[in-house]
Known about the structure:
This protein has four helices and four strands. It is of the alpha+beta class. Strand 1 (4-11) and strand 2 form a beta hairpin.
Amino acid sequence: MIMFLKVIFFVNAGIIIEIRYTSANLGSLEEQANCIRGLLTEKAAPVMNIIHSIFSLILKFRSQLISQSWSFDAGKQMAVHPNFALMQQSYNTFKYYSHFLFKVVTKLVNRGYQPHLEDFLLRINFNNYYKDN
């Protein structure tokens, strides 16, 4: 029988961090909780501000997307959205912040600051999406 536990942390302005746990993975649960606790410290406030900004941009993009509907432009033979320019700007800002978060966390990990950030870095850089050129 596998036990299942789901813990949800509510952090600044509705940011939700969710931990899922099975009985076979207690070490992982403790590591995830340490990571969350580490991000709630005063020293980690700048990192949390970046994360908060990223989540705010996600919500902003969503509201821009659903505020108006897509339409078909027969002249251009493509779908158009009245807020496309705003959505593109939100995306570019999200992309900038996410790359910046990657760089900041990478520097912190390289300096040995809070070892649990290595796991966080692995999660945000899954499949080596962010590569320094």
